[in-house]
Amino acid sequence: xxxxxxxxxxxxxxxxxxxxxxxxxxxxxxxxxxxxxxxxxxxxxxxxxxxxxxxxxxxxxxxxxxxxxxxxxxxxxxxxxxxxxxxxxxxxxxxxxxxxxxxxxxxxxxxxxxxxxxx
Length: 119
What we know:
Layout (H helix, E strand, L loop, with lengths): L4 H18 L1 H15 L6 H14 L3 H13 L4 H40 L1
Helix pairs in contact: 1-2, 1-4, 3-4, 3-5, 4-5
């Protein structure tokens, strides 16, 4: 479990920039896929980020939790919306998702506090 979600995303972002420099075609395609998937349509981007967070929990991906918790905060998700997202992830992912849901809640709280401090 990570101890500082904002620091984790900063470190991961640096590592991903390095990967983008060596796997340019693959990473460009992946980034384009992410942009297309998260673009507002019938569902708004905040809802899609909440869905991505739930999936990250269900598949037990700390890095996914970090990026999608941060994006959920940036798109205005409330703690109540996060709580319902975590409940859905727990339902879909069973016991292991309970543990990862606690990671996601802590990540959301850290990013929300960071944003509040910056305002």
